[in-house]
Design brief:
By secondary structure, the protein is an alpha/beta fold. The protein is 54% helix and 9% strand. The protein has 16 helices and seven strands. The structure holds fe (ii) ion.
Length: 387
């Protein structure tokens, strides 16, 4: 921030000079203009991040100058300098697009605080703008589908939780998730299944309703970063990928994080999303975390993800694939997957079976036939882990 350029506009040369000296002590690069005309000329040449302008000047005043600057350079921050601040001057400043105003006589502390605050706000605005632009670019590159149940699921969840805020950004993320679903045909339904299983696991563990919602959301969005992975890599199974392709594929949790991170509402699920490919034995990615150091949400998603994925890979078989999917979970107990979370998952499947009379059926997951003998994998009346 210290190297940012600041243009100082005042018809009194001495005032310009004093302010320039004050800002120079803080490391800012400055230029001065003795009036609005010169200021507009230097706008293009000097390209300041911030314009600091006196309000009272002969001819065009500082507020009119602010309006003209905002028209040609809306990202430029503006602070006005006023002899006497009043409610009226504050309202006029706001209407002119001014970010802040400071009173004369100017004190160094007050000046630096106002300048840093305005530059900080500008940096945030530019970051958000760039983020939305990047998402739109990614969206344009991705193959899009018409309305998707994936979109409905995410929107419904937010509506239910009364969290529909920052609409534009949220809509973009959701659209991105749809595009991701279109890109990787398995992912859309897969993500919904993972979200549904993860939330059932949270319910089983008697975790708070907030966390249940977060686990569902993490399941829905954990693979959103696949949008940036080339299609030919997604189309291969892990064993078919070259080391380079494997490395590229392994970037997707980090990309998911980058996509979701700027939206405040997604903050509680970021850990689960980033670490959903960590392994209990520490051989996973991106950080090689092991055991309890892996966030609980990520350990839950890993189990739900593994089961849903194995089932979808076997879905072309005529034989119901629950048994083989469960065998995979058991085989990975304590290796890839947290053994306690595997037990929780099995208990959840059992309870779903009891609810549906021999079939797993939830509104989100859909109808899944299950073999009668799968309960033999579960220790009868085993203790529930506590969290
Ligand atoms: Fe993943």
């Amino acid at each position: 921030m210290a190297n940012e350029k600041i243009l100082i506009v005042d018809d009194e040369e001495d005032v310009c000079h004093i302010i320039a000296c004050m800002l120079a002590t803080q490391g800012f690069e400055t230029a001065t203009a003795d009036g609005p005309e010169r200021a507009l000329e230097s706008l293009a040449a000097f390209r300041p991040a911030l314009v600091l302008t006196d309000i009272k000047m002969p001819g065009t005043d500082g507020l009119e100058l602010a309006r003209q600057i905002k028209e040609v350079s809306p990202d430029t921050s503006i602070i006005t300098i006023t002899g006497y601040a009043s409610i009226d001057s504050a309202i006029q400043s706001l209407r002119a697009g001014v970010d802040d105003y400071i009173k004369k006589p100017i004190e160094l502390g007050q000046l630096v605080t106002a300048v840093r605050s305005a530059l900080g706000k500008r940096a945030t605005t530019l970051r958000n703008k760039k983020y939305v632009e990047e998402l739109h670019c990614q969206l344009a590159r991705a193959k899009q589908t018409p309305a998707s149940s994936f979109l409905g699921a995410v929107k419904g969840l937010f509506r239910a939780e009364g969290q529909v805020t920052r609409g534009a950004v949220l809509d973009t993320v959701e659209s991105l998730a749809i595009a991701m679903g279109a890109k990787d045909a398995v992912t859309k339904d897969h993500s919904r299944q993972v979200g549904a299983y993860a939330s059932r696991m949270a319910e089983f563990m008697s975790i708070s309703p907030d966390i249940v919602g977060q686990f569902r959301l993490a399941g829905l969005l954990h693979d959103v970063g696949k949008i940036a992975i080339p299609q030919y890599i997604l189309d291969k199974v892990e064993a078919e990928r070259t080391p380079e392709e494997r490395e590229t594929f392994r970037q997707h949790p980090m990309i998911s994080l980058r996509i979701l991170q700027p939206v405040r509402e997604f903050e509680p699920i970021l850990d689960a999303v980033l670490h959903h490919h960590e392994r209990f034995d520490g051989k996973g990615y991106p950080n090689g975390l092991s055991g309890a150091s892996i966030p609980v949400g990520a350990r839950v998603i890993a189990v739900a993800d593994s089961f849903a994925k194995t089932r979808s890979e076997d879905s072309s078989d005529d034989i119901p694939s629950e048994a083989s999917a469960l065998e995979c979970l058991i085989a990975e107990r304590g290796k890839m997957l947290d053994p306690e979370m595997v037990d929780v998952f099995l208990q959840v499947l059992l309870s779903i079976k009891e609810e549906t009379g021999g079939e797993i059926h939830t509104s989100n997951v859909g109808k899944i036939a299950i073999q009668e003998n799968f309960s033999s994998f579960i220790e009868p009346n085993g203790p529930r882990p506590t969290y």
